[in-house]
Amino acid sequence: MESILGSIDVDAAEWALKIVLATAVDEIKLTWGLRDDLNKLKKRLTMLQAFLVDTGTRESLTNLEQLWVENVKEVVRHADDLFDEFSFENLRRKLEIKDRYYNRGSRLKARYLFFFCLSNPLGFRWRMAHQVKDVMSMIDGVFKDATDLGIRATKLQVPATGSDGNLGSVGAGELHQYRENPDTRQVVGRDGDEAYLVEQLCGAESTGDVSFVAIVGIAGIGKTTLARRVYENEAVIKSFTERIWIYVSDNFNINRILSQMIEVLAKSKPDLSSTEALTKKLQDHMGGASYLLVLDDVWNTVEELWESLKTCLHRIGGSSGSKVLVTTRSNAVADSVKVRITHHLEGLPHEDSWALLKQTTFANDETCPSNLEESGRKIVGNCNGVPLAIKTLGATLRLKRNLQDWKSIENSELWKLPAYGDRIMPYLLLSFHHLPSPTLKQCFAYCSIFVKGAEIFKMDSIEMWMAQGLLVPPGRR
209-232: b or e for each residue (b if 16 or more CB lie within 10 Å)? Predict the structure, then answer.
């Protein structure tokens, strides 16, 4: 986990430094006559950026290197505050001059404003000159520490106009929209799983009550995508009058589930708050029809809550043969539900994994170059058949078409990271590490402030990134 945070910290420091360097320094120099000092400061900050690039190329940092990055961030904060104070004082002076103009009839007031303003120009210049020197002294200390740690300045790459800040097309809608509408066109190697589940939902003998089926598997194994394939299967569509999909996650609230069922059936949100009223409303809408209810990404293991939900579903009625399909990472969830069938979803076989990587990495009319296949197959082997890991790295490899880049991923130290509970972190971190710019990394890392399952809207996200200074206008780059 430290290497993950270290990687993000380096990118945070580098991007904050870019924002500081994008400040309108020329205007400050002309206004306050600190040309030489500010030129030296900007040169030192640019050199500091070159040192950061070296640490950014390392997949993991030692504790001392992480501490050095923290010191860099502290220096950048001081420089940012320094330029902010200059900018504020420039604006304050302009407003003060404007105020003098409109009150030019009072010479006494003008003299008062000059001598007793919050920031006398001569005093402000003297104070800021000392602060500039203090920041440069801090930077010199960071340079010395970098030399002691073996961190070297790296030649900076100047991106083409628009390349560094261009985020491309950001998907509209909410974070959980993918879970409700996953791309089932890229499904590889799941035909047998799909056929088995369709048989269990459509062909099994009815017990006269709502029965439960669970898909259990680790994160990224493809539970939601498989459930969507089953949900959209022609035999399933013919077998059930109504089909309802609900993303549950940590918030297992019975009234919310019932309310969302009504919203799907009635195409409008119900203005009801009690379980009794919601159940009665569902009875009216269902009208004895059979239904398939999918509860996606469930975590609840409290048996009493499951029994309460089952009671509501029983009261709703519907013809015999109605089913509930649950997707979860936990066997404990399946046990607490007392499901009729538990289907454990395993990783893809190697050939299917390789086919998925090729499908994700190369366009329809492309074939994998022969010199990349051996490395690609080794990368796939490291993914342990997890489709999310394969597709994530495939999207990264799509931008890299030379053997050296593929080898750097194949031989990455990140494969050796502890896998934690969901075993998906090393794959995601590899993809994060190989994002093409610090801008993308910072915007991605910013999304961690949202809780799981939160709605993230496209334009709101962009405006928040802009407010945080993560997106720099082209003219200031």
Answer: ebbbbbbbbbbbbbbbbbbbbbbe
Neighbours of 194 (CB within 10 A): 17
pTM greater than 0.85? no
Long-range contacts of 412-418 (CB under 8 A, 24+ apart): 412/59, 413/59, 413/60, 414/3, 414/59, 414/60, 415/382, 417/3, 417/4, 418/1
Contacts of 135 (CB under 8 A, 6+ apart): 41, 75, 78, 79, 82
Beta bridge partners of 327: 215
Amino acid letter, 381? G
Residue positions counted in the chain: 477
Over residues 60-98, the pLDDT tens digits come to 667 787 787 788 878 877 887 877 777 777 777 777 766
Q: What is the mean pLDDT of the chain?
A: 78
Reported as a pLDDT band with limits 50, 70 and 90, residue 416 is: confident
* Residues forming a β-bridge with 214: 326, 342
- What is the per-residue pLDDT for 195? 95
Indicate the burial class of 289 (C-beta count within 10 angstroms; 0-12, 13-18, 19 or more).
middle
Number of Cβ within a 10 Å radius of residue 142: 21
Instruction: Dig out the tokens for 81 from the structure.
Output: 């505050």
Q: Which residue, chain included where needed, has tokens 């050939």?
A: 351
Assign 339 to helix, strand or coil. Answer: coil
Residue 237's pLDDT is 95
